Amino acid sequence: MTMNRLLVTGGCGFIGSNFIRLMLEEYPELSITNLDKLTYAGNLANLADLEGNERYQFQRGDICDREFVDTVLKESKPDAVINFAAESHVDRSILDSTPFVTTNVNGTLTLLDSCRAHQVTRFVQVSTDEVYGSLGDEGFFTESTPLAPNSPYSASKAAADMLVRSYVHTFDFPALITRCSNNYGPYQFPEKLLPLFISNARNDQSLPVYGTGENVRDWIHVLDHCRGIDATLRKGRIGEVYNFGGRTEMTNIALTKLLLKLLGKPESLITYVNDRPGHDQRYAIDCRKAETELGWAPEVTFEQGLQETIDWYLNNEEWVDNIRSGDYLSYYEEQYGDRLS
After folding, report:
1. Does the active-site annotation cover 161?
2. What is the pTM of this model?
3. What's the CATH architecture for 5-184+221-246+282-300+328-336?
4. 118-130 pLDDT per residue, tens
5. Which residue is catalytic, options 36, 130, 218, 224?
6. Active site residue 129
7. Interval 218-232: pLDDT, tens
8. Strand positions, DSSP E, the chain
């Protein structure tokens, strides 16, 4: 399917920024408009290398603002919209669920209505495997696994997915949904496990592991996920869900110890803390549908990807430190005259 113009929402975040950069590299004819509210996890520095690129345009705004979304769609005339915009940190959703419902549910609804009005021909909702809930020791999530979200974050994403599904069936809206396991790679906000632990270990600070650390996650490199979203956009069937995973299951404690070993740091840095409320035990993705229908397969081995990820954070200490100190927020204030929420 030919795509010349894309609108990406939430493109200053971890996965969105990697997607934008990859698409511009892969498709020389492609132009991208990036709509991002620039909340705390949206970082303009993630795409600083694209400043001045004629094929890239940034628009600051809120996906909940219908008038603004309408204006951007009217001006950019995208062939497709890819929605990355979301509040995504489980711990924050436990402390305050309201922003998650506002952005993830109401924001998605606003996008759907605006895209319908402007006759967008392709819409990809980027979701998460967390909507499926928790697995036991056996089995894998498939696209037909019933949704059973266990956190306010995952519940808000599941609600958004249901809205997308309803628009496909009620209005023949041309939408697809992707769900993915835990991502890792460059430009991930340092509150998430891997960048947090790499940064803490670098500074000989403690690595806080929830409970006993026996919770299991399936890890996929962010660029493999982005390639999956691209394949869904171009080859996926309208109304379908596509799962993406890295087939790399690991307990949190095993991953933590591996990181310390690769960083040459002692395991004495590990600190066990009270477990997260409602902490899901295990996630694991069956991605055979994406492999069969889309011709997609993960390309980055975990060993390669993890080492490259560690190297990236160690070689980009200024990027990490600016976020951890909050200095990056001052730049936004200078540019836009207000602090971020």
Report:
1. no
2. 0.94
3. 3-Layer(aba) Sandwich (3.40)
4. 999 999 999 999 9
5. 130
6. yes
7. 999 999 999 999 999
8. 5-9, 31-36, 56-60, 80-83, 123-126, 175-180, 182-184, 207-210, 216-221, 241-244, 249-251, 270-273
